Amino acid sequence: MSNHIRLFVAVELPKLVKQEIVRVQAVLQSEHCFEGKYVNPEQAHITMKFIGSVQADQLDLIIKSLAGISFMPCVAQLKNVGLFCTDDFIKIVYANVLAPTLPALAADLDKQLLPWCQPEQRAFVSHVTLARVQHVEDRQRVHDVVNALVIEPIVFEINSFVLKQSVLTQTGPEYVTLHTY
Question: pTM for the complete prediction?
Fold first, then answer.
């Protein structure tokens, strides 16, 4: 038995946003423009910081460290569907979320979690992953389908963040909320 646990910090989504994720995923699936794994909408969230694997005996210290973060609630809005790509590959299909206080929260998380993980090298992008792309025949078609998608601009409040454990299983990851801030 391992004495390590996989952790990340996230913002939970309201039911209305999850329902819109289901609708957008259905449109993407009906287009058959890529092969990949769709995120379980019930587990969808905004990842603020992936901590990774840490020793289980560090959990209490991490919980206490995160309690030191001052977080300002904000109003957020679903904006559009986008792609995270490299020059050669389309990797992620996501829903962009406008949320003015989340970049500051991401920066604070980088500082507070420095003993357990490295700061992000990329700029924070507030998003909800919809699908992880595994294979694409026609990159331009994927771009065209995603650019044509209209997402409902749902407005919702973000007033907390959570520390979650990711348990990898044969059927995909299962997330357990360990603490709410």
Answer: 0.92
